Amino acid sequence: MRRSVTVTNNSETEQRNSRARQLPILPVDNRVRIQDPVNKRWYRSGTVVAQPRPRQYDIRLPNGRVIKRNRIFLRPIPATEGEATAPAADTTTTLQYPIAHHAFSNGGPQRRHKLKTLL
Prior knowledge:
Residues 1-21 are annotated as: Disordered. By secondary structure, the chain is of the alpha+beta class. It has helices spanning 2-19, 99-106, 109-118, and strands at 31-35, 42-53, 56-60, 66-70, 74-76.
């Protein structure tokens, strides 16, 4: 019984690894786009500050806040020819959605009622 479970786990791991792709390491001071975990949009940008662990990055946002993100939620922003390696902070635009935009996307009437009482 245990042997078949081990064989199954190994085959699942091999299948998952065959479809996986290795993402390149992001250097420090590289500008990146950050994906919103709720609506899957690339809505913010920031600068890589550090890589404390494999696949984990500390990102400094334009407002000075530092957040941690997994590598899969970061995409490098290509530098244009006329742009310096460290662009000014005021060139970064941040698109922020109101709370209601996320709340009503998949919630039913009960969810709307709860939001009205919270707001």
